[in-house]
Write a structure and sequence with these properties.
Oligomer: homodimer
CATH architecture of the largest domain in chain A: 3-Layer(aba) Sandwich
CATH superfamily of the largest domain in chain A: Type I PLP-dependent aspartate aminotransferase-like (Major domain)
Number of helices of chain A: 11
Largest sheet of chain A: 7 strands, mixed
Structural class of chain A: alpha/beta
Low-confidence stretches of chain A: none
CATH class of the largest domain in chain A: Alpha Beta
Helix content of chain A: 40-55%
Distance between the termini of chain A: 21 Å
Order of helices and strands of chain A: EHHEHEHEHEHEEEHHEEHEHEH
Number of domains of chain A: 2
Chain lengths: 382, 382
Amino acid sequence: MELIYLDNAATTSIFPEVVLVMQETLKENYGNPSSVHAVGRTAKAKVESARKYIAQQLGAQPQEIIFTSGGTEGDNTILQGAVQYLGVKHIISSPIEHHAVLHPLTHMAAQGLITLHMVKVLPNGFPDMHDLDRLLTSIPDKKLVSLMHINNEVGSMIDLNAVGDLCHQHNALFHSDAVQSIGHYQLQLGELPLDFAVASAHKFHGPKGVGFMYVRKKTGLGGLLLGGAQERGMRAGTEAVHNIVGMEEALRMSYQTLDEDTAKLKELKSYCLSALQEALPGTVFNGACYDMNLSTHTLVNARLPFDEKKAQLLTFHLDLQGICCSKGSACQSGSESGSHVLQTLLSPNENKFPSLRFSFAATNTKDEIDKLVSVLAAYAKS
Amino acid sequence: MELIYLDNAATTSIFPEVVLVMQETLKENYGNPSSVHAVGRTAKAKVESARKYIAQQLGAQPQEIIFTSGGTEGDNTILQGAVQYLGVKHIISSPIEHHAVLHPLTHMAAQGLITLHMVKVLPNGFPDMHDLDRLLTSIPDKKLVSLMHINNEVGSMIDLNAVGDLCHQHNALFHSDAVQSIGHYQLQLGELPLDFAVASAHKFHGPKGVGFMYVRKKTGLGGLLLGGAQERGMRAGTEAVHNIVGMEEALRMSYQTLDEDTAKLKELKSYCLSALQEALPGTVFNGACYDMNLSTHTLVNARLPFDEKKAQLLTFHLDLQGICCSKGSACQSGSESGSHVLQTLLSPNENKFPSLRFSFAATNTKDEIDKLVSVLAAYAKS
């Protein structure tokens, strides 16, 4: 059975060209970039060339790009580091952040290292800016705000300029998990009122196990993983050269075809929204994902008009039909506790209906959407 | 010019078969192991099968093997975690540990989170067991001992049974960085008096950016990188499936030919020791690396009879001749501060002579040693 993969917000397939450069690097450039001899220097050059390209592409300076093992490490390094090195005592975040942000925060709060403040979130998945202003005003001490750029479950895309400006007016540091946007939107990090951001290669057709942090220079942030002098002391550990080179290539390819891919994805999302509503009247789109000015064109989160019994077997049924999608973030797919994002955004009555996230790559087709919709329609009638 | 790579303790070339399985995994198994659909389950199966193999190979249980981004992350997670989760207030270590151990320890000590005790180290690179006993006896509180199995610079190999038994007699937890031994020696972790250990794939012909921790079950250790529920909460972040599968294959291949490789390496090391002493009378071997009962057969750390002027250009000269070796650990190769290991083990007068580490893989040959020795001999006469 041909699988239909509509879970690109969880992870993406890897561009064949990325596999190729990784394979070459694994074979040819096995040196340790910290070694000063010829074999080490070649590896070092690969790493630094990737850093330079990524920085340039994102309007940052090379020394502001720190390679990590992925988004989770980036978020943890920045949040734990802000407390350890920058004297941050108060952190403002939201209940719909990724667990890679929420869990270090609740952990530090439980240890008494920070006071954690949760900004109110509107039903469309945006932070209540008045509440954010109120919180920022009420905290005189050193503070940091962590709000993700694009919500990974419902796709709401916050205005980094508006949020960042507000943070900086109140002398708060601003961190944004940009795992769902870097590679899909052309961010110029250096021009944004951002202190920290985080990206992950496997969300834009690169390898798993690698990502980067943007750390604005002179913030004074230190490392969480301590040891060797790699990454200017911000992240110890031998660099995964093949993964870094693969990430560079994936980002290059993503941005090379960004305009045409964006057009394709917008059309695909529009098509999906209409087709779902037509075939399954009563379908509601969570957050603001019906509006591409407010949400990413890469995903749809749909609340489907199925009764409790049908809801229970829904994902199982789709899986049997070869359709790969998810209830929310993959990181909690295994758990039965449900989505913390939808629990925040929806009323208990709304949340009785099953919600599914369909997330797209530019290679997805209208035929695949047709198949998805026909499977759902048939299930509704079964 | 044909390069002669004698820096295998810094990193190793990757087995072609490892590149092959990684390449296949990148192409075919791009799923997120946390996704519950078909594509996710296939990736999950790969990860769990690797865990099972590695556990079995090392006499551990699968749930005791936690995948990480490498040795540094493993050391940091264990050391920082012991303080955060296990109530450890005192840590005993040695001044010749890897920076991935020393730096988190000095950082935590500076923050007032722990009292750090340094055991005396004998000139041959072994901890003074009487001093260790004295330290353990003097600390009534919850404590942990961190001593690496094989020293990465001078190769001294501590007796894990003797050290671990002593730790456990004193109710101390015992962690050992086994980055230089796993893949080169057949350890049965479950049978050793060890609570924690750390390995890194790129030291045994696997990929960079992946390793694992051994965490004895029921220790209660928690994660440093928090977020998703991967690795049973011990290490959040999407698993780098291709790297994990590559590590599994590298370990399988290393252990399949372990006996013949060990025989080869012992002969090669003996040959290197004799050839150096013969060609350069006055050469001294640091630590205990002249004795393969006390040190690993994978490396030689030689103190060479060159005057200060010749010493300064020595590594530069070897590099020009295509010989890759290092002054100490790669992680500090770039720095000019010199080896903290040799500063501990040698007197200032001894340390005036240049020391070099030559570290071997089973693919190195006597011809390469001959070339190394002739280049050094010619340099001595130049």
